[in-house]
Amino acid sequence: MKTDPRRFAPLGLALSLLAVLSFLGFLIVKGLAGAGVFTPPDPQLLTRGLWISAAIILLGLALAALLDPEKARKFLVGRQVQYGSNSLIMLVAFVGVLFFVNMIAYQNPKTWDLTEGQ
Predict the structure, then answer these.
(1) Does residue 116 register a pLDDT over 80?
(2) How much is the pTM?
(3) Are 21 and 49 in contact (CB under 8 A)?
(4) Terminal CA-to-CA distance of the chain, rounded, Å?
(5) For residue 74, with 0-12 CB atoms within 10 Å meaning exposed, 13-18 middle and 19 or more buried, which class applies?
(6) Per residue in 62-113, pLDDT tens?
(7) Are 26 and 46 in contact (CB under 8 A)?
(8) How far apart are CA 39 and CA 14, in angstroms?
(9) Would you call 53 exposed, middle or buried from its count of C-beta atoms within 10 A (0-12, 13-18, 19+)?
């Protein structure tokens, strides 16, 4: 009897979901440690945990895409992804323009006297 590998594709997504939850947990703990709420015994452990969680997220998504490539293809060429990617590109462009304008203004300080009695 031949098993269909597409049956196991949701396991990759479940693995990614668990990794996202652990990533958020590590991020919260790292934020609390950065704020000085507590001191972890090994600060590098939090950073390693974040990187490992991120790698497992990517691994789970890749596993789901490899086990069910047709579903992944349908998701990636859908209308929502196209509109979402356009919005993301516009957001990145807007933030980039703000960043460079702020950088130029910071590097060239000039005070303007806009009061009435100059």
Answers:
(1) no
(2) 0.69
(3) no
(4) 89
(5) exposed
(6) 999 999 999 888 888 888 888 888 999 999 999 999 999 999 989 988 888 8
(7) yes
(8) 32
(9) buried
